[in-house]
Specification:
about 250 residues, alpha+beta, Heat Shock Protein 90, Actin, Chain A, domain 4, 2 domains, six-stranded mixed sheet, flat
Length: about 250
């Protein structure tokens, strides 16, 4: 009996070990700045991949670069780290205060990142950023970041598909169906603002539990008042378009 149970037990341990190896663990990283009368308000909550694996380093480096891009408001020096980006955002606020004495609006940035999809091959993060630096309204955007877990790399949009042109045609028809745009009418027939009346894929695409999300930020294809426009294509409808990882490397 023991000779039969022991191999099964070892197989179960190996199976659990392999499963755990595929999963990436995260901890919450919260970043705030000091509270003072002449300081902008900063509240950032993003996932931080734990461990020293290659994929963890790629994820954390990519997230840091996204934050730097959002916070860099000082052109007087080159920003290369998140700490420098926070200083840049604060410097930009103080400079505005010096030049415009009547500028009373407090600058504020709120950024939240979440893991919205993970399977053995892919990982998708969504970064939701709201930034107010004066004016009639602030800046709001969402960013989808895709990673190949097997190769430990980021995935560009065109790398998601086996045939991006065929996928674009499929996505356009689905978009038209959802928005009630007749096939024989221009894509902007109902008020959208696609350049040159030609449908195009968004800058941001990423996986969710329901399917592939196409995300158009404000002003990308519509007015600010229309907000973020999203279209989710079910996994069962897009599986033939999605490029599967061809090689595997250690995480």
């Amino acid at each position: 009996m023991k000779k039969i149970l022991l191999p099964c037990f070892l197989f179960l341990i190996l199976l659990i070990g392999c499963k755990n190896k595929q999963e990436i663990t995260f901890e919450e990283l919260q970043i705030t700045n000091e509270v003072c009368d002449d300081c902008p308000k900063v509240n950032i909550q993003i996932p931080k991949a734990t461990g020293n694996t290659k994929i963890a380093k790629i994820i954390n480096t990519t997230l840091e670069q996204e934050l730097i891009t959002l916070l860099d408001y000082d052109d007087s020096f080159e920003v290369t780290t998140l700490s420098e980006a926070l200083v840049s955002f604060k410097s930009g606020y103080k400079e505005i205060q010096q030049f415009y004495d009547d500028e009373t609006a407090l600058w504020e940035v709120k950024i939240q990142g979440v893991v919205i999809f993970e399977d053995p091959n892919f990982l998708t993060l969504e970064i939701d950023a709201s930034i107010f630096t004066g004016g009639a309204h602030g800046y709001h955007s969402k960013r989808l970041l895709n990673f190949d877990k097997q190769l430990a790399t980021t995935i560009e949009n065109e790398e998601l598909f086996t045939d991006i042109e065929a996928f674009q045609k499929f996505a356009e028809q689905t978009f038209r169906d959802k928005e009630g745009i007749p096939s024989d009418k221009p894509i902007n027939y109902t008020g959208f603002m696609f350049e040159e009346e030609i449908f195009h894929l968004p800058e941001n695409m990423g996986f969710t539990a329901e399917g592939l999300k196409l995300l158009y930020n404000q002003y990308e294809i519509a007015s600010y008042a229309d907000g973020v426009i999203e279209l989710v294509l079910p996994h069962s409808e897009i599986e033939n378009f999605i490029a599967k990882p061809q090689n595997s490397k250690p995480l």
